[in-house]
Amino acid sequence: MTSAKDIGQHRDTSGLNIFANPNLSTSPTASFQSAPSSHGGSLFAGRTVPLPNAKHLKPFATEDIKVLLLENVNQTGRDILTGQGYQVEFLKSSLPEDQLIEKIRDVHVIGIRSKTKLTARVLKEARNLIVIGCFCIGTNQVDLQYAAAHGIAVFNSPFSNSRSVAELVISEIIALARQLGDRSMEMHAGTWNKVSTKCWEIRGKTLGIIGYGHIGAQLSVLAEAMGMSVIFYDVLNLMALGTAQQVPTLETLLAKSDFVTCHVPELPETKNMIGPQQFEQMKQGSYLINASRGSVVDISALIHAMRSGKIAGAALDVYPNEPAGNGDYFNDDLNTWGSDLRGLKNVILTPHIGGSTEEAQSAIGVEVAQALVRYVNEGTTLGAVNLPEVTLRSLTMDEPNHARVIYIHQNVPGVLRKVNEILGDHNVDKQMTDSRDDVAYLMADISDVDNSTIKDLYERLESLSSRVMTRILY
């Protein structure tokens, strides 16, 4: 039986269980993004359905595989991974970079949420790492280009907490319109302040949604059900749900909306997309909600707009700098404007809990953990955000002497010809390949194999200068 360290560094090449992760001298330069989608659908829509007698591929002795889960990953995900026989280490918090580097050196699988930063410096030390699971929506905390260049797949859960975020935003719209936060704090302080001035119903008001993706679309439906008119702005032309209408520019949305809510990813184009100019374009006495990314709203400009009376209320769930753990850390040392923001009236501040419901975290745990198992055990990359999406139908128990070859390589001319010259000496039952910018992914099932066949295939594929990672599963 090989050790976990041996698996990652391919020291044992005498048996069927072969696993490699060599480094490359070149890296992709283009950004990797998930395919655009407006709403609905499953992450694994179109996935091949396993046969009833599907053969469970195992590329290793599962008890030697090390999994590190950080940031209190939900129990559902932990159960799935431990159920595979992997060694699972679980921590409730994130780790400082130096501690993370020490922990990640012998890890094959790592699961994180939004606080852990997997930079190139960290990933460089992860010599055995094959896959990253982001148990959240975003993947901006991971260096996707570096991961792809070194054959490390990255999976996330882009849909599972959409409803939780949408419901939070609806509750904040009502709370801001009725100044519930201020009234509650006053009552806790012993002050009775029964007022109706500048307190509104949301029925008949206009909600402007910036970013009509999975969350924005669900929010649209909920808002309409409560009698609101909905408009949205998105860089893509998208089909509206219900009677919502897409507007051509952000300026148009800001000028027409009583409530503005942001649901966009963190990109250079979205950094401070709501700043002084945009606040000037908004309606007098309108409201702003941001449950997307902390870099989207210029907080200093928001504070000025609130003090001037231009903005009547705001709800923030995300911030440019957020504490790594729970405690008295949301202060001026973290963000210089902290005291000014906390001193404003009718401002709801929540600690990045948009997707923090039992239902959402449970669903995320299942979705990401299942994706990790499929990738580790079968090589399936459906749902990966940084590698081509490739899958083959399952091998069956009637195919005992079959093996699955996975070859991740640089996307340069001539590679497939060389690979197929090697595979051509064997009976290839099925094969699929796809590329994504500078990285390509090939999967092939071959029959009538034995130990010597596997060893020969592995060594010949490893000798190719274009390889990123070679794996053979059986």
From TrEMBL:
Keywords, A to Z, come to:
Amino-acid biosynthesis, NAD, Oxidoreductase, Phosphoprotein, Serine biosynthesis
Reported EC number(s) for this entry are: 1.1.1.399, 1.1.1.95
Q: What family is this protein classified in?
A: Belongs to the D-isomer specific 2-hydroxyacid dehydrogenase family.
UniProt keyword annotation of Phosphoprotein present: yes
One Pfam family named in its UniProt record: 2-Hacid_dh
Q: Can you give the residue ranges of the ACT domain? A: 404-474
Q: What does this protein do?
A: Catalyzes the reversible oxidation of 3-phospho-D-glycerate to 3-phosphonooxypyruvate, the first step of the phosphorylated L-serine biosynthesis pathway. Also catalyzes the reversible oxidation of 2-hydroxyglutarate to 2-oxoglutarate.
- Tell me the protein's name: 2-oxoglutarate reductase
Specify whether Lipoprotein is a keyword of the entry: no
Describe the reaction catalysed, as an equation: (R)-2-hydroxyglutarate + NAD(+) = 2-oxoglutarate + NADH + H(+); (2R)-3-phosphoglycerate + NAD(+) = 3-phosphooxypyruvate + NADH + H(+)
Recorded hits in CDD domains, A to Z, give: PGDH_3
Which intervals of the chain are annotated as region Disordered? 1-20
GO MF: 2-oxoglutarate reductase activity; NAD binding; phosphoglycerate dehydrogenase activity
- InterPro entries, per the entry: ACT-like_dom_sf (IPR045865), ACT_dom (IPR002912), D-2-hydroxyacid_DH (IPR050857), D-isomer_2_OHA_DH_cat_dom (IPR006139), D-isomer_DH_CS (IPR029753), D-isomer_DH_CS1 (IPR029752), D-isomer_DH_NAD-bd (IPR006140), NAD(P)-bd_dom_sf (IPR036291)
Pathway(s) it belongs to: Amino-acid biosynthesis; L-serine biosynthesis; L-serine from 3-phospho-D-glycerate: step 1/3
Tell me, what is an example of a GO biological process annotation in this record? L-serine biosynthetic process
